[in-house]
Amino acid sequence: MGEHTRILVVDDDESIRKGLATILVEKGYVVDTAENGKEAIEKSNANFYNLALLDIRLPDMEGTKLLTAMKETTPKMVKIIITGYPSMQNAIEAVNEGADAYVLKPVNIDNVLNTIKEHLKKQQEAIKYSEEKAAEFIETRAREWEEKRTVIRK
Amino acid sequence: MEAMTYVNASKLLHDYGKRIKELRCIYGISKLLENPDVSLEEILQKTVNLLPSAWRYPDIACARIVFEKREFKTKNFRETIWKQSADIKIHGKRVGAVEVYYLEQNPTLDEGPFSKEERDLIEAAAESLGKFAERRKAEEALQESEKKYRELADLLPQAVYEMDERGNLTFTNRKGFESYGYTREDFEKGLNALQMFIPEDRDRVRNNIQRILSGEKLVGNEYTARRKDGSTFPVIIYSSPIIRENKPTGLRGIIVDITDRKRMQEELLKAERLAAIGEVATMVGHDLRNPLTGIATAAYYLKMRLGSKMDKKMEEMLELIDKDIEYSNKIISDLLEYSREIRLELVETTPKSIVEDSLTLVKVSQNIQILDFTGSEPRINVDVQKMKRVFVNIIKNSIDAMPEGGKLTIKSKESGDSVEIAFADTGAGMTGEIMEKLWMPLFTTKAKGMGLGLSICKRIVEAHGGSIFVNSTVGKGTTFTVTLPIKPKIEGGEKTWANIPGSLLSTTTKA
User: Fold this and answer.
1) 3-state secondary structure of B449
2) CB contact under 8 A, B509 and A101
3) On the CB side of A124, how many CA atoms lie within 13 Å of its CA?
4) Which of A112, B40, B353, B436 has a C-alpha 20 to 30 A away from that of B199?
5) Residue B27 contacts A, CB cutoff 8 Å
6) Which residues pair with B422 in a beta bridge?
7) B240-243 long-range Cβ contacts below 8 angstroms, 24+ apart
8) In chain B, what residues touch A84 (CB-CB under 8 Å)?
9) Coil, strand or helix: which one is A97?
10) Tell me, what DSSP letter sits at residue B192?
11) Tens of pLDDT along B202-244?
């Protein structure tokens, strides 16, 4: 994991927010928190986060709505939903709205940490892949240029 | 002079004899009329036979009674010109006649063909026959109307009654006998209205009888009725006073058995209760799962920070927290599940297979012996996961009932198109009071538990179209019997359990 992996924890329950944040900091992440949907959107627009843990019920909006909003502004951020109400309906909604995973309350912290790790790894891989692709692209282009220049010089 | 005296004396004697004959005839007729069991026809025939004897020359007298186109005659009857007749009238209308004839001419003509006394006698006979027929007809009409009333009353699907002002029952219909279990003999011996109610209701009944007698209008009262055998059922009674000559002489009314209505009310109440539990459960579930998450997180942090510095006691305490979080969460899940509709996923299996699987899920202490005699036949269609839950719950209850150790015997038996699985323990047993409340949600005798286990079991078994029964003797043990149809008919065909697929619920990724 990168040294500055940034995580946003969104939950209106203070003890969950504080608890999760403390553990994540302990695990070496840079952690920010938000206690409602509005704050979450503002923070995610202003700052970069690799990943967000989202409570499905927030005082000002449903977690699925927050997901929809975030899908547009921060499509690459990993979004993990935390819920106390397991039901087919909200599971489907969450996935449709772009959640990457779905965790049940009361959470098993090991599970959460593993999920976070797993998704960040995927994200890194994706980034690395696109970086490689970009480098390859640039290299190829540079070579082409070089070749063209040689041809012109001749 | 002497001769005169003799003539006088002989005349007197003759008159005297005649009076006696007349009297005997009148007496005979009135005796006939007194007997209520004799038919009108018989009375008329017997009267006609009596009549000639009262006439002066009985040997040559004959008689006929014509009554509503029917004739009643003496054996020697013949119409002659020496005739005496009187009309029989009902309500002043002629309906027939009494006739006496002499078959030959009267030998002594000094008194005319018939004497004045004979005229009086025939008039008297006609009159009393008329009066009698009038009364008979009225009685018959009354009987007919009573019969009609009784037959109508017997057709009623509700019990009706009549009683006097002291509460003695004077009438009830077939339904009345049926619902209360009393016989006509009991009724003839005398029954009091108060006997028809449980003792706790009798003061209220007495009071309401007085209120209705005094003219107050009451719109149906609910009571608990008591049958002859002591069993009870709920009723609502609508009564009104019987008024004779402006005075209330009793009550009559209709008794409606409201067992079905009550049951429906109770079911509605139960449904409401369930809905309320559901609402509370959802609320409580969410509200509790948040703090549980907080606790779990904090405990995790401590475990993480303390790491190897943690001693055995600390580790134990942290595990205690985790265990209780899990238990609390199970209570929440039970509550949520209880308020949810049960859907079945039927799979073919055997009683033995479910029982064996269930037994692996239960911790059995050393002092408890479990004997599993369940069979691999018949093959049954059940929702295995849910039925396992039922069996685990019953087995755990049995074990809990035997803290000092004991034996749990599990047997299965095929009977007809169902299979019975019985769990018999040698534990503490239950009182009738506990057994009555056993299936109620939120009822428990345990210090730890929500009291949802058995009511969920009952719902699961009933969702299969089966039933669950308990039999218990305090000090001897308890037997739970689950009866399951071999091929359950589930409404609307095969339903699938609308559960969230494990892949979504766990922390795995979306593909």
Assistant:
1) coil
2) yes
3) 12
4) B436
5) no
6) B411, B481
7) B240/B212, B241/B212, B241/B213, B241/B215, B242/B162
8) 285-286, 289-290, 293
9) coil
10) B
11) 999 999 999 999 888 888 889 999 999 999 999 999 999 999 8
Cis peptide before A106 (omega within 30 of 0): yes
- The encoded tokens of residue B117 equal 């006394």
Handedness of CA A32, A36, A38, A41 (dihedral sign): positive
Helix/strand/coil percent split, chain A, to 5 = 55, 20, 25
Closest chain A residue to B506, measured at CA: A103
Chain B residues near residue A107 by CB distance under 8 angstroms: 293, 296-297
Contacting B with CB below 8 Å, chain A residues are 13, 15-16, 19-20, 22-23, 26, 57, 80, 82, 84-88, 91, 95, 99-112, 114-115, 118-119, 122
Residue B177 predicted with pLDDT over 90: yes
Q: How do the residues of chain B divide into helix, strand and coil, expressed in percent and rounded to 5?
A: 50, 25, 30
* pTM tops 0.80: no
What is the DSSP pairing of strand A51-55 with strand A101-104? unpaired
pLDDT reported for residue B357: 85
Interchain contact B511–A (C-beta under 8 A)? no
Q: What is residue B320's DSSP assignment?
A: H
Question: What distance in Å separates residue B338's CA from the closest CA in chain A?
Answer: 15
Report the candidate in B117, B128, B98, B97 with the shortest Cα–Cα distance to residue B55.
B117
User: Which two tokens mark B13?
Assistant: 């004697």
Cβ distance of A13 and B301 shorter than 8 Å: no
Residue carrying structure tokens 């959107």: A41
Other Cβ atoms less than 10 A from the Cβ of B322: the count is 16
Give ipTM to 2 decimals: 0.79
